[in-house]
DNA sequence: TGGGCGAATATGGGCGTCAACGGGATCGAT
DNA sequence: ATCGATCCCGTTGACGCCCATATTCGCCCA
C-alpha cells in the first residue's frame, strides 16, 4: 500500500514526542521521503504533512503567477516560509513544537488522518467536530440534490 | 536540501550578532554563496537575503521597464544601491547593523523565513502580523475560486 | 472457541552531540 | 589608546540516538 489511509490517535510524551503510526511510516519509506514537511492548512486547524513533493505542486502553481505581484509572494511565503520539517527519529517519532501546537491547538494527543498522498495532524476533539460538520454538509448537499431532482420531474 | 525552507527565531546578543539557522547555512554552502547580500523588500518591512543571483531577479525585472522612464531608474537605485553584504563569522553569525534594523524594526530578535531561493529577516511580531494577512488573502482567493466554480456550473 | 504465546508498536527515559548563545582575547584601523 | 570587527572557547539547552518497558493484536494450538 502506498497511500496514507485511515486514522489513529497517539499520545505526546513528556519530551513532546509522538509516534507517527507505523502504517504511515511504511508509506513514507515506500515513497522514499527523507524528511517530512508540514504545512498549516488554510481553512482548518490542521497540518498537511508529506514529502517535499508536496511543495512541487505549490511551486508549479506559483510559476503560473507573475513573480512580481503580491499573489506569487503570498504563495511562496505560505509554502516555503510557513512550513516546518518534521524529523522522524529512529523509533518513528516526531517532536511536536510550538509551531505545530499553535495552529492546531494540539496539547496532549495527536490525531493522524490519512489523505492519500499526504496525511494530516489534528487535535482529536477538533477533528471530531470537523468530521461531523463535513458529514452534515455532505448530507445537505445530497438532500438538496434530491429535492432538485423531484422539482425538475414535476 | 537546496532550498531555504521553514522559519526560526534567534536572539541578538550584546554585541549585535545573531546566528543564521544552521539549516540555512547548509543551504548557503551547498549553493556556493560566498557572501550574502541583503535587500530591503519593497512593500514589507523585511530583508531579502541570498547570493548575488538575488540581483539577477531584480535586474530581469528592471529590463522589462522602459529605460527612459523614472521607474527603471528607481528600481536600479533600489536594488544596486540599497543593499548590504552580510558576512558570516565562523560560528555562522552575522552582525545586525543599523541598516538592517532601520527598515525592519528589528531590535532584540530576528525571525528567519525561508523563501525557496532566498530567505527573509523580520522583526518577529511584524512577521506574525504579515503571516496572518497573507493567510487571509490566500483564503479569500480560495473562496473566490470556489464561488466561481459554483457559478460556472449553474 | 478460548486461552496463551509472540511479534510489532507505542511509550518512557538516560545520554551524547550539536547548535545557539555569551563573553574574553586578538588584531587592525582611525 | 579606543573602538569595532573577528576569532576562539566555554556553557547551556534542545534534540537525536539508544535501550528498556508496556500494551496491543494477531496467530497458533489445545
Description:
Two copies of one chain form a homodimer. By secondary structure, chain A is α+β, with helices and mostly antiparallel strands. The first copy, chain A, has a single domain (7-123), classed as Chemotaxis protein chec. Chain A is 45% helix and 22% strand. A six-stranded antiparallel beta sheet of chain A has the order 1-7-8-4-3-5. In chain A, strands 2-6 form a two-stranded antiparallel ribbon. In chain A, a hairpin with a 4-residue loop joins β7 and β8 (119-122). In chain A, α2 (53-63) runs antiparallel to α3. The model of chain A has no long low-confidence stretch (mean pLDDT 92). Chains A and B meet through α3 and β5 of A and α5 of B.
Strand order of the largest sheet of chain A: 1-7-8-4-3-5
Under CATH, the homologous superfamily of chain A reads Transcriptional regulator MraZ domain
Order of helices and strands of chain A: EEHEEHHEEHEEH
Instruction: Provide the domain count of chain A.
Output: 1
Helix content of chain A: 40-55%
Q: What shape does the CA trace of chain A take?
A: globular
Pair with the biggest interface? A-B, 23 and 24 residues
> How would you name the oligomeric state of the polypeptide chains in this document?
homodimer
**End-to-end Cα distance of chain A:** 48 Å
User: What is the total tally of β strands of chain A?
Assistant: 8
What value does the average pLDDT of chain A take?
A: 92
| CATH class value of chain A | Alpha Beta
Helix count of chain A?
Answer: 5
For this structure, the CATH topology of chain A is Chemotaxis protein chec
Amino acid at each position: 500500500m502506498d497511500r496514507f489511509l485511515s486514522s489513529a490517535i497517539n499520545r505526546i510524551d513528556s519530551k513532546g514526542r509522538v509516534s507517527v503510526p507505523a502504517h504511515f511510516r511504511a508509506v513514507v519509506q515506500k515513497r522514499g521521503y527523507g524528511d517530512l514537511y508540514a504545512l498549516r492548512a488554510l481553512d482548518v486547524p490542521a497540518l498537511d504533512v508529506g514529502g517535499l513533493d508536496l511543495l512541487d505542486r505549490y511551486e508549479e502553481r506559483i510559476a503560473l503567477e507573475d513573480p512580481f505581484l503580491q499573489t506569487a509572494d503570498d504563495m511562496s511565503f505560505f509554502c516555503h516560509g510557513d512550513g516546518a520539517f518534521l524529523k522522524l527519529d529512529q523509533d518513528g517519532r516526531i517532536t511536536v513544537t510550538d509551531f505545530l501546537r499553535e495552529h492546531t491547538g494540539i496539547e496532549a494527543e495527536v490525531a493522524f488522518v490519512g489523505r492519500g498522498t499526504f496525511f494530516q495532524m489534528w487535535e482529536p476533539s477538533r477533528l471530531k467536530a470537523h468530521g461531523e460538520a463535513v458529514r452534515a454538509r455532505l448530507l445537505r448537499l445530497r438532500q438538496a440534490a434530491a429535492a432538485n431532482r423531484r422539482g425538475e420531474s414535476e
